[in-house]
């Protein structure tokens, strides 16, 4: 019997984990698998080990594992596979396929633009600060360069910048200070984050304490959107066609 195991990052903010689970539950009807389970890499339960065990307990003989992350970096490349390898040792006859994160996708750019328009009418000369989680993996910065190119193409805006909340430069704080020093007439701060969490709360505090005469709009995180749900379902279908991965020692 086929199963899908969705692995979310997890968050110290309980609402973030609830949002991730609710997102996946909205997407499940798009996926043709009788068993679909949700688990977390860290900071929330169930764990990857518990998620895999639940699939097997419900009768799974094949499991497609999907890292429910925006970009491909250390978690998708190393942390999740390592946890999955350890968990799979208990099930030597289980067939496991491993998918990829959502990745850079032009339809996600469309959702970013929607989040801006929710915040305020976008002026032709608006400045934008896209905010990413950040990673020590160099592929993250390459992905964001691609995201900026797509964003500029779709919006026709030219003053678009990037700031990272961790592990990358420029930092969110530095990028924000640099931008506000230029005194833009209108500034949108657009989080490239799926869910609320410690990082979004930190951004909210920083923006609240910002001293500027500019019109500043902090947009909401991506959150659930049917467009992103369809991309997630695509990732499941793609992975289901891949060759199984050996997670045995």
UniProtKB/TrEMBL annotation:
Q: Which Pfam families match?
A: CbiX (PF01903)
Q: What molecular function does GO assign, one term?
A: metal ion binding
Cited InterPro entries? CbiX-like, Sirohydro_Cobaltochel/CbiX
Q: Which UniProt keywords apply?
A: Lyase, Metal-binding
Quote the protein name from its UniProt record: Sirohydrochlorin chelatase
Q: What is the lineage of its organism?
A: Bacteria, Bacillati, Bacillota, Bacilli, Bacillales
């Amino acid at each position: 019997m086929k199963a899908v195991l969705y692995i979310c990052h997890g968050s110290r903010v309980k609402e973030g984990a609830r949002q991730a689970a609710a997102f996946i539950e909205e997407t499940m009807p798009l996926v043709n698998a009788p068993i679909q389970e949700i688990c977390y890499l860290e900071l929330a339960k169930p764990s990857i080990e518990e998620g895999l065990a639940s699939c097997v307990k419900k009768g799974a003989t094949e499991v497609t594992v999907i890292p429910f992350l925006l970009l491909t970096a250390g978690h998708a490349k190393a942390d999740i596979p390592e946890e999955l390898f350890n968990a799979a040792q208990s099930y030597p006859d289980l067939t496991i396929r491993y998918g990829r994160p959502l990745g850079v996708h032009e339809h996600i750019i469309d959702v970013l633009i929607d989040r801006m328009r929710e915040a305020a009418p976008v002026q032709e000369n608006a400045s934008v600060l896209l905010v990413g989680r950040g990673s020590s993996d160099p592929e993250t910065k390459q992905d964001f360069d691609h995201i900026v190119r797509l964003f500029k193409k779709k919006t026709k805006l030219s003053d678009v910048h990037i700031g990272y909340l961790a592990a990358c430069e420029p930092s969110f704080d530095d990028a924000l200070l640099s931008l506000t020093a230029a005194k833009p007439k209108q500034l949108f701060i657009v989080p490239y984050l799926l869910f609320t969490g410690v990082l979004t709360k930190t951004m909210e505090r920083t923006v609240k304490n910002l001293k500027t005469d500019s019109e500043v709009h902090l947009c909401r995180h991506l959150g659930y959107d049917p467009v992103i749900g369809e991309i997630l379902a695509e990732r499941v279908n793609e992975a289901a066609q891949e060759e199984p991965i050996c997670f045995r020692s």
